[in-house]
Write a structure and sequence with these properties.
The structure is a single chain. By secondary structure, the chain is of the alpha+beta class. It has a domain of 43 residues. The chain is 18% helix and 41% strand. The strands form two sheets. The protein has a two-stranded antiparallel ribbon.
């Protein structure tokens, strides 16, 4: 999943620049920020994250299989 880093240009009291970091949803062509972690492979330093919309879609698909 792509990590997004935004340098705000705002200088904190300690002299460092404020930096915002977040991850994008792993769903193809989704520009939303990731909210839900599906899984993590520590050995590979990899994880899967989905936004709220696609997590609901995945949940609905799982309900139909029962």
């Amino acid at each position: 999943m792509p990590r997004v880093v935004i340098r705000t240009g705002v200088i904190r009291d300690d002299g460092t620049e404020e930096i915002l970091e977040d991850y994008l949803c792993d769903w193809p062509d989704c520009p939303n920020m990731g909210e839900h972690v599906l899984g993590v492979l520590v050995e590979l330093r990899a994880m899967a994250i989905l936004c709220g919309k696609h997590m609901a879609t995945l949940h609905e698909r799982g309900q139909g299989q029962r």
